[in-house]
Design brief:
The protein has 14 helices and seven strands. By secondary structure, the protein is α+β, with helices and mostly antiparallel strands. It folds into two domains: 98 residues, Nucleic acid-binding proteins (OB fold (Dihydrolipoamide Acetyltransferase, E2P)), CATH 2.40.50; 248 residues, no CATH class. Strands 1, 2, 3, 4, 5, 6 and 7 form a seven-stranded mixed β-sheet that branches.
């Protein structure tokens, strides 16, 4: 073993020790949060705070992530009705009761929220709007809302639900029936904006750009620019930002043409992310899937390409194999027809993402162009729905 490998292994060992030290500190701070003192009390409290995350719109309610101010500062998740609507950056006064997140038999909701620093939840409190949100993020989310309106105006369910989830992260708007069919057929992952999506997008972009004659030295940077545009369009969601960083490193690894460089870059990036938020390691499935998917693509895809002669299938199979243990551990089942359905669906997903990105841009600047693209986009999504209906 040469000196560089020994140095890297030593550095990783030190990094792991620091990450677990940070984990204990962060977890202790959350466990000792003053907000927890008000949980499960019969008395209502009054808090002021700002919405720090895009509202999560569901079928019957909206979930708001709020950073409270004052002595009892911290993050709480507030469930409110569909109307009136609130936006990112809004200053609110909340009057109601706080509760400890529930631990269900098959899902630890408490740990799921803990990764985002949330230790308290509140259901349908009284809300008073103090000030509307401003700033570049609020403006960006308004553009995203225009894209959302275009999707749900031009497409009908279930096509609109699938496209909205894939392009905007609107998983909460999907019906329970559709979610169950996707689970049964093993392709629920196509509707979640994760590392796998970014890797798929980066792979197809590289192939397209090189096919159009762009040099191998320039194609990765153009690809990175398009990936950044995609992440910006969906509102810089934390999960998509993490996936984008991982995907960006995968593109750069392709540019350098060295698997070892890519692997080290991915490990170091994951280490930096865990230094910032060490709870991701145990409580964030999206982080785990993104990290394992890109490792799978970098290490296995070159071998699969020799057998299947397809970059798309090689990428998919590599990521699928590496993420399978996490999927089985967290969801408790593996679809026996999943591999077959993935082979039938994944090649179409790439084109849906590309046409969906074009549609999202055109709906803002040239609606007629978006309408023209909508027909082939509808056909591709309809193909997926028919496959899902048949195999489920």
């Amino acid at each position: 073993m040469n000196k560089s490998k020994l140095f890297f292994l030593g550095f990783c060992l030190i990094l792991i020790i620091i990450i677990f030290w940070r984990y204990d500190i962060v977890l202790s701070d959350l466990e000792n949060s003053q907000l927890k003192n008000y949980n499960d009390s019969d008395e209502e409290i009054v808090l002021t705070g700002k919405i720090i995350k895009e509202p999560d719109v569901r079928e019957n309610n909206i979930k708001l992530t709020i950073l409270t101010r004052g002595p009892s500062s911290g993050r709480i998740l507030v469930t409110v009705g569909r109307y009136p609507e609130y936006g990112y950056g809004d200053e609110l006064e909340i009057t109601g009761k706080l509760q400890t997140p529930t631990v269900f038999e098959d899902f630890n909701y408490k740990k799921y929220l803990l990764k985002d620093g949330i230790v308290s939840v509140s259901y349908y409190p009284k809300i008073k709007l103090l000030e509307k949100g401003r700033g570049p993020t609020s403006i960006l989310l308004k553009f995203k809302d225009r894209v959302r309106q275009g999707i749900y105006r031009i497409f009908s369910p279930p096509q609109s639900e699938i496209l909205g989830a894939m392009m905007l992260g609107d998983k909460g708007r999907m019906s329970l029936g559709l979610k169950e069919k996707l689970n049964v057929t093993g392709i629920r992952h196509i509707t979640a904006i994760s590392g796998l999506h970014i890797f798929i997008l980066s792979t197809i972009l590289m192939s397209l750009l090189l096919g159009l004659g762009l040099s191998r030295s320039r194609a990765p940077y153009v690809s990175l620019g398009i990936i950044f545009l995609f992440i910006a369009m969906i509102g810089f969601q934390p999960s998509s930002v993490r996936a984008g960083i991982m995907g960006g490193l995968f593109v750069l690894a392709q540019a350098f043409g060295r698997k070892s460089v890519g692997t080290r870059a991915i490990i170091l990036t994951a280490g930096i992310m865990l230094l910032i938020n060490p709870l991701l390691l145990f409580y964030d499935i999206g982080f785990q899937l993104s990290f394992l998917a890109v490792l799978g693509i970098i290490t296995l895809a070159p071998y699969f390409k020799k057998w299947v002669k397809s970059t798309i299938l090689a990428t998919t199979l590599s990521a699928y194999i590496f993420t399978l243990p996490i999927l089985f551990y967290n969801f408790g089942r593996i679809s026996l027809i999943g591999p077959l359905v993935n082979i039938l669906v994944i090649p179409v997903v790439y084109w849906i993402m590309i046409l969906g990105l074009a549609f999202s841009i055109l709906i803002l600047i040239f609606p007629l162009g978006a309408w023209l693209i909508s027909f082939p986009l509808w056909l591709l999504i309809t193909y997926i729905t028919k496959i899902v209906d048949f195999f489920s």
